[in-house]
Amino acid sequence: MHNNKNSLNILKTAKGQIEAIIRMIEDNRYCIDISRQILASVALLKKANTKILNNHLESCVKNAAYSNDPKEINVKILELEEVMNYISKNL
């Protein structure tokens, strides 16, 4: 895993939002306001995931391809297939 600093910052922002959502619920804030904050947090998590997957393609998958090791290449393809299947089930 290389150069995921941007993703880390996004995740820290999402963490702050989630902590704020918890306080909103504890303070009995308006449900729609809470829902909007949850959706904003979900969007940040998706953004971080996209950046991490792109980084994976640019580093780990490329390295596997350049290695010319069929087993390593197959492992990377299977990993991506698993993630894509999970994402498609949760759309």
UniProtKB/TrEMBL annotation:
<dbReference type="Pfam" id="PF02583">
    <property type="entry name" value="Trns_repr_metal"/>
</dbReference>
<dbReference type="InterPro" id="IPR038390">
    <property type="entry name" value="Metal_Tscrpt_repr_sf"/>
</dbReference>
<keyword id="KW-0479">Metal-binding</keyword>
<protein>
    <recommendedName>
        <fullName>Copper-sensing transcriptional repressor CsoR</fullName>
    </recommendedName>
</protein>
<dbReference type="InterPro" id="IPR003735">
    <property type="entry name" value="Metal_Tscrpt_repr"/>
</dbReference>
<comment type="subunit">
    <text>Homodimer.</text>
</comment>
<keyword id="KW-0963">Cytoplasm</keyword>
